Predict the structure of Copper chaperone PCu(A)C.
Amino acid sequence: MQMKEYEPPSCPQASGNSVPVGGYRMAFAWHKASQYLHHGHGRSGPFRHRMMRENSPMLRIVTLMVTGLALALLAACQPPAQLLVEKAYVKLSPVEGSPSVLYFTIKGGPSDTVLRSITSPNILRLEMHETVEENGMSMMKPITAVAVPTRGKVEFKPGGKHVMVWGFDNASRKAGKATFLFSFSNGEKIEVDATLNAIKPEDGMAHH
């Protein structure tokens, strides 16, 4: 009987220079486990079925092993997480000399990291704050760093974390956007353009 060469399974979306997901070792283990289940570990006929019934604990172990390998293969096929900063916008203060507010969302990457700083060539200065409730009163507290968990989400939004910004230059006001550079503890730096949105004086800045 002619033996067909075994081909390890790979991720359906693998292409280009990508390596088949799971590698040869996972594929070989899967192949051997499948042989055990389907061929009775080298035996055939009624003996195989009797053996599988009598050795049900072993059958469960092999089944769990095959299931685990399948789940690992599927997990490996998922696209890798990427550290992102998105939905950035600024509420411009209508009062000269008063701070505007920057909001945005951070999406965590493949590992935990920390937002260390935010800078911009279009402003005079900025500060990170968080709105908290203490003794029934809302107040702002400065923060110097923000943890970003793996595949997590951190929102800077009204009523929570936010960035106070002073002194936008004329170029950014004319363009309707400003550039901000986010620096993280893992060495990544992400540059983002935030739109500048004017607010009415009656809206105030009460909801930092």
